Amino acid sequence: MKRLVAFTLVLLTTGCGARIAHTEPTDTVTVTNCGQEATYAKPSRVVTNDTGITELMFALGLGDRMAGYVIGGSRTSDVESSPWKADFERVPDLGEQITKELVQGARADMVFAGWNYGFSESTGFTPDALKDMGIASYQLTEACRNGVGTQRGIMPPLEALYTDLRNLGRIFGVEAKAEELIAGYRKQVADAAKLVKEHRPKVFLYDSGLDQPFTSGRNGAPQDIIDKAGGENVFGDLDDSWTTVGWEAVVARDPDVVLINDYADGQATTPDEKRAFLESYQPLRDVAAIRDKRFFVLPYAALVESPRNPAAIEAFARFLADNAG
Predict the structure, then answer these.
(1) What pLDDT band is residue 306 in, cutting at 50, 70 and 90?
(2) Which of 110, 136, 219, 310 is the most exposed place for a label (fewest CB within 10 A)?
(3) By the 8 A CB rule, do 219 and 145 touch?
(4) Which of the listed residues 93, 118, 146 is the one where a domain comes to its end?
């Protein structure tokens, strides 16, 4: 009988321990974000900043875990074209500028943003400032700083997308959905690769800028969009995500195709206006892409890290195969 009682106590103790071990990970989850371990406790009132970041939450089915989103006025066309437009309509639109006061008013328990995607020392809206307020933050991996000034990007762009999906899957307990999305995206990218021809045209990503162009280096989403679609990013040697270059460098690298970012930047607002500027700018007149009028347009939300990236790769691969092969 003593042995039986002792054995029963062991089972009960083990059972209690097993239950505690099972519930602890659901109470707090630790992931690596921008090279640092970060712990989260069941966020239920998340505020997101920018279109692509918000769509990552929607793609994972996490709209009900959000207190709202912030999107700049020039991004409203992205919402209209979004595969998750219905989610944008259901979740509160909190405004066009994210601030400490805004997230406090929303009673946020986590902010999902990135450097230059909401986080900025100049505004005082930073992960450290949120921590002082008792609010957790998750940083977009595409925008992680890489240790050289304010340069951003610590891994290949698609891996940044998959990393964020897996991390968010763990934080919110939707790991299976995250893996399902990643598998689908990998297949979409692999299918696009079947369209790629041997010749790889040189591509210049034109985001904005008249005096100096704003473009994307090897750490931004356009790098993999261009590369996986069968092109070569003419500024793929730059160790940054998004950055300013000179028109002289564009001329010297003589791109075959210009990929235009469709969003209002306050200068040349529409894709047609951006194209008209490029075609009228005399220093570019002998650049192959301008001379041969090879332009392709993608929406802003497809060119930053977002669940639209794989579809953008497929669309651009079809264009390159038909027009620049």
Answers:
(1) very high
(2) 136
(3) no
(4) 146
